[in-house]
TrEMBL record:
Function: Component of the signal recognition particle (SRP) complex, a ribonucleoprotein complex that mediates the cotranslational targeting of secretory and membrane proteins to the endoplasmic reticulum (ER). SRP9 together with SRP14 and the Alu portion of the SRP RNA, constitutes the elongation arrest domain of SRP. The complex of SRP9 and SRP14 is required for SRP RNA binding.
Keyword Coiled coil applies: no
Main location (coarse class): cytoplasm
Keywords: Cytoplasm, Ribonucleoprotein, RNA-binding, Signal recognition particle
Pfam families assigned: SRP9-21 (PF05486)
Protein name per its UniProtKB record: Signal recognition particle 9 kDa protein
Transmembrane segments: none
Family membership: Belongs to the SRP9 family.
UniProt key word DNA damage: no
Subcellular location, record wording: Cytoplasm
Gene3D superfamilies: Signal recognition particle alu RNA binding heterodimer, srp9/1
Organism expressing this protein natively: Huso huso
Length: 86
């Protein structure tokens, strides 16, 4: 399970994983209050991508990216639309 050190690498890899097979991808957000860590995991059961952070600005990026993924998951044209990650 690769743990990405930079947000940009993780976001690109997660988007690519989602766009390959949207019906198999799952997203898990996990917050540990005792450590102050937020972990985002994106998996399709064959590949598992993980990003952990304790920085507030990264939490905002995760929240924005998670919202973009959710919008793609409910849209009908999810395969033709590419996400824009800042």
């Amino acid at each position: 399970m690769p743990l990405y050190q930079t947000w940009e690498e993780f976001a690109r890899a997660a988007e690519k994983l989602y766009l390959t097979d949207p019906m198999k991808v799952r997203v898990v957000l996990k917050y540990r209050h005792c450590d102050g860590n937020l972990c985002m995991k994106v998996t399709d059961d064959a590949v598992c991508l993980q990003y952990k952070t304790d920085q507030a600005q990264d939490v905002k990026k995760i929240e924005k990216f998670h919202g973009q993924l959710m919008r793609l998951m409910v849209s009908k044209e999810s395969r033709s639309v590419s996400m824009e990650t800042d």
